[in-house]
């Protein structure tokens, strides 16, 4: 049954509307009507503002310092428990309910991390053992300091790439021969390179590479802890999802390019700086004839095994209790074939080489290198923090708990600072391993301890067994793990449908990260995103509004049908803050949709001058003729209502613009009313002296109230004039 039929049959009654009725009282003259509140035929809303406390800044600072400097046992306990979340959740740990899922997920992630840690070490320009160190320390430290139950913190490909670029640059500055990159990473070779340090000790290329890597990691951790201390987690809001996705995809192309030489068995210098992706491919094609056939065949076989099984894991993840650790099987099989087939001796394949057991003595970062790497560490720290916080918040929301962004900064910061003394490089959360961790039953941070124990077992016992592992296998593992980032191209049609601006940001960030460099690409992405925000407010949407029949709702007449425009009133909406960037666009849009008061005023003056030239009458006669002439061509509206509901703030230029618009329109007899101003805009208007205290009736709390006021004031003008005569403007 239709709504109309229901209404006729009595089954439906529309909601009652509230109407305010006013007594009509006569007023003797127009001036009395304007000043007497009882004569107004409509109700005005009056809100009394809250009284703001008069606080002295000096006293406020002293009070805050006194509160911060107070020391008590409860405060010390709260600080310790806040800094070490493990002390809060571990005593409440439900052993029977959670232990099985945590152990299972920790074991599986640990098994997956072994080959990935070794493979990503190449990406960071380090020996394989340092990747194992990094994953071990990060897993254990995040268990103590982290607030997310599900994310997996460890090696992340993009950060490894950024570390590797810094390492290569500093190796070149230090005078190492970068043409023999493979030799520095443990490849069996007769060549060796070393540098005599000021202390008299000999430090070869691999030694200096980890010194550089740990130093930049230390600085990145310091930045992250500083951001947590000063509570500047808002920095991550400038890295939108589209920007991060484009950056990771662009960096993935650079990662793929850097690993291509290992798949072909080529020994090439690692290109860095602007255009490194193109330079690397030029070097590869120039040396393609030197391809090691054994490494190429091994790479193809590993790809044929890993790609289908990865897809199988993806498709059957709902049915499988745990993903198949294909990477580990491939690493074990490839190591056995290389060892018993003596591929290095027969075909000169590049292998991982000796991986020592145990831990090296701790060593402080090189303080002399800090000026060289301090700027590089900024981008690394922001990317690491942004990815960690975004993943932790995403999984916390999914599973119904909360994480603390500042504590996450502390956690990831100390996951970089402390390991930097133990020959490690930068870490962050990684999406692929986090998804595996969640899907295998992870319940708490305790799974990170299980992962650390698996890596510890490898470091103490199993690591030397990977001596014969070919680097081409590690390169394949790295490339296969880029599938997720490269698949983002499939999401572009949907992203384009939802937001074309985000798609453009994605493409700009991706292309700049891939074709220029990762650091510059990130900077370009951030700057372009901010430019897009400014662009959106520079030329925002503007429209004239109409009222929905029998309601107090106003909407855009260009967007909806069957809206009624009130005679003599133009309602204008501006959907953006009004500030110096878009003040001219505000004026031009308003003039275009209504009329240009400057041109109207000029035309009126021109008409007056023309009349003076034609007529040689007295001054009073001229006035009478001009008034008659102008009355023959009246303006089609008498009031403009500016809907300020979408204007978030005003700056000085915005206030001056509103003043100018009001003055210009009033000069031709059109009043300008502002409606639905938020408290911030009202405060700005008051401080900018937009209107005098007795003119506060020009500001309204709703568009409907402003429209009613305009109609009533016009009716009063039609009926009453100072000399007691009445006339109509029509």
TrEMBL record:
Q: Which reactions does this protein catalyse?
A: oxalate(out) + 2 chloride(in) = oxalate(in) + 2 chloride(out); nitrate(in) + chloride(out) = nitrate(out) + chloride(in); sulfate(out) + 2 chloride(in) = sulfate(in) + 2 chloride(out); bromide(in) + chloride(out) = bromide(out) + chloride(in)
Native organism: Phocoena sinus (Vaquita)
Which GO terms of the molecular function aspect are on file?
secondary active sulfate transmembrane transporter activity; solute:inorganic anion antiporter activity
Localization, per the record, is: Apical cell membrane
Kindly give the InterPro entries that the UniProt entry links to this protein: S04_transporter_CS, SLC26A/SulP_dom, SLC26A/SulP_fam, STAS_dom, STAS_dom_sf
The coiled-coil segments of this chain are none
The protein's name is Sulfate transporter
Q: Which family does it belong to?
A: Belongs to the SLC26A/SulP transporter (TC 2.A.53) family.
Entry keyword annotation includes Membrane? yes
Regarding the membrane, this protein is recorded as: Multi-pass membrane protein
Q: Which residues cross the membrane?
A: 99-120, 140-163, 207-226, 232-256, 263-284, 369-389, 410-432, 452-482, 503-531
Gene Ontology CC: apical plasma membrane
Organism placement in taxonomy: Eukaryota, Metazoa, Chordata, Craniata, Vertebrata
Q: Which UniProt keywords apply?
A: Cell membrane, Glycoprotein, Membrane, Phosphoprotein, Transmembrane, Transmembrane helix, Transport
STAS domain mapped to chain residues: 559-710
- Keyword Repeat attributed: no
Q: What does this protein do?
A: Sulfate transporter which mediates sulfate uptake into chondrocytes in order to maintain adequate sulfation of proteoglycans which is needed for cartilage development. Mediates electroneutral anion exchange of sulfate ions for oxalate ions, sulfate and oxalate ions for chloride and/or hydroxyl ions and chloride ions for bromide, iodide and nitrate ions.
Question: Which biological process terms from the Gene Ontology are attached to this UniProt entry?
Answer: chondrocyte differentiation; chondrocyte proliferation
């Amino acid at each position: 049954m239709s709504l109309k039929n229901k209404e006729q049959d009595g089954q439906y009654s529309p909601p009652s509307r509230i109407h305010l009725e006013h007594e009509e009282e006569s007023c003797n003259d127009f001036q009395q009507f304007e000043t007497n509140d009882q004569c107004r035929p409509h109700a005005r809303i009056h809100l009394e503002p809250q009284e703001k406390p008069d606080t002295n800044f000096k006293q406020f600072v002293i009070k805050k310092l006194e509160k911060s400097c107070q020391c008590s046992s409860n405060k010390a306990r709260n600080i310790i428990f806040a800094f070490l979340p493990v002390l809060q959740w571990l005593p409440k740990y439900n052993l029977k309910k959670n232990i099985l899922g945590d152990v299972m997920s920790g074991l599986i992630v640990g098994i997956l991390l072994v080959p990935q840690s070794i493979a990503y070490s190449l990406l960071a320009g380090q020996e394989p053992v340092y990747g194992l160190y990094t994953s071990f320390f990060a897993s254990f430290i995040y268990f103590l300091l982290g607030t997310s139950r599900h994310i997996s913190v460890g090696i992340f490909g993009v950060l490894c790439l950024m570390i590797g670029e810094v390492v290569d640059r500093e190796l070149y500055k230090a005078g190492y021969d970068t043409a023999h990159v493979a030799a520095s990473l443990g490849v069996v070779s007769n060549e060796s390179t070393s540098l005599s340090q000021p202390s008299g000790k000999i430090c070869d290329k691999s030694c200096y590479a980890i010194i550089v890597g740990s130093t930049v990691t230390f600085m990145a951790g310091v930045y992250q802890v500083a951001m947590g201390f000063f509570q500047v987690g808002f920095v991550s809001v400038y890295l939108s999802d589209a920007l991060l996705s484009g950056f990771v995809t662009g960096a993935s192309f650079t990662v793929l390019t850097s690993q291509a030489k290992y798949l072909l068995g080529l020994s090439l210098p690692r290109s860095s700086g602007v255009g490194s992706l193109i330079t690397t491919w030029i070097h590869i094609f120039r040396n393609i004839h030197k391809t090691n056939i054994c490494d190429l065949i091994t790479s193809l076989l590993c790809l044929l095994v890993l790609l289908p099984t990865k897809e199988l894991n993806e498709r059957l993840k709902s049915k499988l209790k745990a993903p198949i650790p294909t990477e580990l099987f491939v690493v074990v099989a490839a190591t056995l074939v290389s060892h018993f087939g003596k591929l290095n001796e027969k075909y000169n394949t590049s292998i991982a080489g000796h991986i020592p057991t145990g831990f090296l003595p701790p060593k402080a970062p090189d303080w002399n290198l800090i000026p060289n790497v301090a700027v590089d560490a900024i981008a690394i720290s922001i990317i690491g923090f942004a990815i960690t916080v975004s993943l932790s918040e995403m999984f916390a929301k999914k599973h119904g708990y909360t994480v603390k962004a500042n504590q996450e900064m502390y956690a990831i910061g100390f996951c970089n600072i402390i390991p930097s003394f133990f020959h490690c490089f930068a870490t962050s959360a990684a999406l692929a391993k986090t998804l595996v961790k969640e899907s295998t039953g992870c319940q708490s941070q305790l799974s990170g301890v299980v992962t650390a124990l698996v890596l510890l077992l490898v470091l103490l016992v199993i690591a030397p067994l990977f001596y014969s592992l070919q680097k081409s296998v590690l390169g394949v593992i790295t490339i296969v793990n880029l599938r997720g980032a490269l698949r983002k191209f499939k999401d572009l049609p949907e992203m384009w449908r939802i937001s074309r601006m985000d798609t453009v940001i994605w493409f700009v960030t991706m292309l700049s990260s891939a074709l220029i460099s990762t650091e510059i690409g990130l900077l370009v992405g951030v700057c372009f995103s901010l430019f897009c925000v400014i662009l959106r407010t520079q030329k925002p949407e503007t429209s004239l509004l109409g009222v929905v029949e029998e309601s107090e709702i106003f909407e855009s007449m260009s967007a909806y049908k069957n809206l009624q425009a009130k005679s003599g009133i133009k309602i204008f909406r501006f959907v953006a803050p009004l500030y110096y960037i878009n003040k001219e666009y505000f004026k031009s849009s308003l003039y275009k949709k209504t009329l240009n008061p400057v041109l109207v005023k000029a035309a009126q003056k021109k008409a007056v001058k023309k009349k003076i030239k034609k007529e040689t009458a007295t001054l009073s006669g001229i006035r009478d003729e001009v008034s008659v002439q102008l009355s023959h061509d009246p303006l089609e509206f008498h009031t403009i209502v500016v809907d300020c509901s979408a204007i978030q703030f005003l700056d000085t230029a915005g206030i001056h613009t509103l003043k100018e618009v009001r003055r210009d329109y009033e000069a031709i007899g059109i009043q300008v009313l502002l409606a639905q101003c938020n408290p911030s805009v009202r405060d700005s208007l008051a401080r900018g002296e937009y209107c005098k205290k007795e003119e506060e009736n020009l500001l309204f709390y709703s568009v409907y109230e402003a429209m009613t006021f305009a109609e009533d004031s016009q009716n009063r003008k039609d009926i009453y004039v100072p000399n007691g005569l009445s006339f109509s403007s029509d």
